[in-house]
Amino acid sequence: MEIIISDNPKSLGEKAGKAAGELIRKAIDAQGSANIILATGTSQFETINQLLAEEGIAWGKVTMFHLDEYIGLPITHEASFRKYLKERFLDKVGNLKNYYLIDGEVDSVLETKRLAELIKKNPIDVALVGIGENGHLAFNDPPADFDTEEPYLVVDLDQACRAQQFNEGWFPHFDEVPAQAISMSIRQIMKSKAIICSVPDERKAKAVSDCVKNSVSNLFPASILQDHADCKLYLDTASAPLTA
Fold first, then answer.
1. Distance CA 64, CA 96 (A)
2. Domains of the chain: which residue ranges?
3. What residues contact 129, with CB distance under 8 A and at least 6 apart?
4. In this model, does residue 226 exceed pLDDT 90?
């Protein structure tokens, strides 16, 4: 894992977005198409903005997946990750080759099976991810399942995870944060050829330290990124101080 530290969230996002753009261009040049994963949440604002600003990406040759979605939350809700990606990426990027959003409003077991078949046919070239305040990767809260080969899972969200979503302003009341979600699994994320992990903000400093300095453990889910052959961790001066 390579760690890159920037002065602020904007410069972090610029570096991460540029790196992701270069990887996507290389994948298209090498094989004629690229498959990507996009993360959501406040940590990804600047990275996605920069990715959209990147020149020379043939977006019509790109297929997009995303990491997770709440179960039972309508796409019209401000916290919906489908809404997030539609407004912040899909409506701006133009026509992709394809995109596959997680639908949390249908039968969750059938949805995980549908997505599993799709992603098995589209090996991921570049994954953009973040790290949660509890160290989660996607919605794989601790202790995360490091063993399952299922590409997508129905997961229970712990109190720390739900508190983060509430404190970031996505929900007016804590009790409104869903208790379950559909999440891409740890092993599926790790199958990505390259991973760009963007983690700004002082709130994430402890989680970043736990996942970088401790041995790989499902108690610190994002620590698994230490084992990836091509993972770059982008931090700012607020999220990085405990990593030294």
1. 8
2. 22-42+55-195+207-230
3. 37, 39, 67, 137, 138, 189, 195, 196, 197, 198
4. yes
Q: State yes or no: pLDDT of 13 exceeds 80.
A: yes
Kindly report, residue by residue over 133-191, the tens digit of the pLDDT: 999 999 999 999 999 999 999 999 999 999 999 998 889 999 999 999 999 999 999 99
Tell me whether residue 211 is exposed, middle or buried, using C-beta atoms within 10 angstroms of its C-beta: 0 to 12, 13 to 18, 19 or more.
buried
Residue 156, helix vs strand vs coil? strand
Q: How confident is the model at residue 41 (pLDDT cuts 50, 70, 90)?
A: confident
End-to-end CA distance of the chain: 14
Q: Over the range 60-87, which residues count as b (16 or more CB within 10 Å of their CB) and which as e? A: eebbbbbbbbbbebeeebebbbbbbbee
Q: How far apart are CA 121 and CA 144, in angstroms?
A: 25
CB 20 within 8 A of CB 51: yes
User: Is domain 22-42+55-195+207-230 classified as CATH 3.40.50.720?
Assistant: no
Instruction: Look at residue 100 in the predicted model and tell me its pLDDT.
Output: 97
Number of residues assigned to the chain? 244
Q: Return d(Cα 113, Cα 222) in angstroms, integer.
A: 24
Q: Structure tokens of 159?
A: 């109190």
Query: What mean pLDDT value characterizes the chain?
Result: 96
- Give dist(CA 229, CA 77) in Å, integer: 37
Within 8 A by CB and 6+ apart from 186, the residues are 137, 138, 140, 144, 145, 146, 148, 221, 224
pLDDT of residue 94: 85
